[in-house]
Amino acid sequence: MTLTTKLEVRARFGWSLCLLLLPLSVHAQNDGPKLNDRIDAFLERMQLPEFQMLHLEKQISRPILIRQKAAYAAKLADLYVNELLTLSDQERASALAKRVRALVKSFPQANSSLLQVMLLQGDYQRAENLTRKWLTDPESSAKEKTEAGRILLDIVPKLSRYHLELHKKVKVANEGLDKLPEGPLKARREKKIDQLANVAGRASYFAGWGNYYLGLIKIKSGGKGRLELSRSRVSFRKLFFEEADEKISKETTAEEMQLLSQARARAALGLALAEIALGSKDKGALWFNLLRSPDANPDLRDEIGYWEALAHIMDNDFKTVEAIAEREIKRFTDAYTNGRVSLCVLLMRAAYGDSSTPRPTLPQPVRTYLPD
């Protein structure tokens, strides 16, 4: 059975189930919350989150006790977070975000840092796309730079605050978990911690790249961006280290850092760029060496020469750029790769164009943080 067929079968089953549950839902108005809770529990067991969300949305729109509405709204908010974490379709994610905003407007008490991070994700991705257009063609993309800066100035402080807040919550939630006996209570606690850690990681990732982009925009606009670059480094470090004084060494391996994951590899790339931008070139070099490892993400590995050269071009360190170019070109074969072409184009622009305004291609948005 193909994936499409499986999805069609699941959809037909879901709609059939919906028709079967409709009479129960109608009776639920008169029979009180117990039947509603049974329907909700059944949909959860059947792993039908969309129908579970529709059911809860219907219940909170009905004239029931405020206390019961609040409980349904809290559960609905939790379902929204889980669904947004798994959605890769941007159109569906945008539609769901509208439902989230409607819930928060009707029930402000259901709002949370978890929901806010998921809502800010769409704004971040829009700002990233605008920033990439500007950095690719700064001479004709001044409007994109201005709009990206406006969005980032609004969302980056929020993302920075939420990522610190959520990491603290994860740490607190983990305390005492080992003391709980095995059973449903511990399983629910572990599930909640997993959700917190996932959103905290996502907040750190977006705060890291958001601060990095904002720092670049400020610097290229004649301002100061070191504070944002420092915050970028802090955010990325949260994805790899629990303590502030932890660091990698020459003995650290890509496998230890779990860099086979694309999201973690992109975070390591951001950290390398931030380190070099802040003057810690040796630390940046260590991260770039890890990303070259056979145990790092293969899609990103092809681009490492380009990224390392770009980092030093932005730092106006052309002696290091020359050494990187010599090293990378010696490794060239007859095989065509996007990374090699990007590196050659970057070097040509740096050599013959305006080196103060290089035109890099920044990373594609990574919409999920999924630790392996």
Q: Give the averaged pLDDT, no decimals.
A: 80
What is the H/E order?
HHHHHHHHHHHHHHH
Shape: elongated
Count of alpha and pi helical runs: 15
Uncertain segments are: 1-13, 355-372
The total count of strands amounts to 0
Beta-strand content bin? under 5%
Helix content: over 70%
Task: Give Rg in angstroms.
Answer: 24 Å
The description of the largest β-sheet is: none
Beginning-to-end CA distance, first to last residue: 28 Å
Structure commentary:
This protein is mostly helical and 372 residues long. 72% of the residues lie in helices and 0% in strands. The protein is built from 15 helices and no strands. Helix 8 packs antiparallel against helix 9 and helix 10 runs antiparallel to helix 11. It is elongated, with a radius of gyration of 24 Å. The two termini are 28 Å apart. The N terminus and C terminus are likely disordered.
List keywords for this structure.
372 residues, disordered C terminus, mainly alpha
Give a summary of the structure in a few sentences:
Helices cover 72% and strands 0% of the residues.
Topology record:
Blueprint: H1 3-31, H2 33-45, H3 49-60, H4 66-86, H5 90-106, H6 113-136, H7 142-174, H8 184-220, H9 226-238, H10 262-277, H11 281-291, H12 298-301, H13 304-314, H14 318-330, H15 338-352
